Amino acid sequence: MKKREYDQWRSILWSESDVLVLARTIYGEARGEDEETKIAVANVVMNRANDPKWWGKTVKEVCLARKQFSCFNFEDPNFVELVNVTIKNKVFQECFGIAYSVMKKLLTDNTNGATHYHNKDIDTLWDDKMSMALELNNLLFYNEKSLKI
């Protein structure tokens, strides 16, 4: 995808509803994971939106903040997947249902308040400064409220 097309898609994403952007985030970040892990990704977004000191005040602002969720980064192969997926896709249907349920508080936070996560195979510069909240399949979740000083 060329940068101009990427920028056009980013503009379109800003016009979508919070629940649809959250569903796309879950799909882009965790479509190969089980339901519990997808719910955890959604809860990380909600935990950030509920404490908007640096990520944003809405679900959409949190999801689309630059360099926060890699699936929205330029040249990430997941970006093409998440903008082209339709509701006919069974996994996206599941992601949409999770997004709706988490936003409506029909599902509880299964992350112990986590505000960050990453794939086990990725080395980060920030995880050693945080407390591990949860490990689910391929993802490690961290609680920002327990920062080590």
What would your notes on this structure say?
This protein is mainly alpha-helical. It has one domain (3-108). Helices cover 46% and strands 10% of the residues. Strands 1-3-2 form a three-stranded antiparallel beta sheet, covered by helices on one side. Helix 3 crosses helix 6 (90-103). It is globular and about 40 Å long.
How many H/I helical runs? Answer: 6
Beginning-to-end CA distance, first to last residue: 41 Å
The strand line-up of the biggest sheet is 1-3-2
> How many E-type strands?
3
Structural class by sheet pairing and helices: mainly alpha
Number of domains: 1
Strand content: 5-15%
Low-pLDDT segments = none
Biggest sheet architecture: 3 strands, antiparallel
Radius of gyration: 15 Å
Helix content: 40-55%
- Overall geometry: globular
Pattern of helices and strands: HHHHHHEEE
Mean model confidence by pLDDT: 92
Q: What is the multimeric organization of the chains shown?
A: single chain
What keyword list fits this structure?
149 residues, mainly alpha, three-stranded antiparallel β-sheet, 46% helix, globular
Summarize the structure.
It is built from six helices and three strands, in the order ααααααβββ. With 149 residues, the chain is mainly α.
Give the helix/strand layout:
Blueprint: H1 3-15, H2 18-30, H3 35-49, H4 59-64, H5 77-84, H6 90-103, E1 116-119, E2 131-136, E3 139-143
Antiparallel strand pairs: 1-3, 2-3
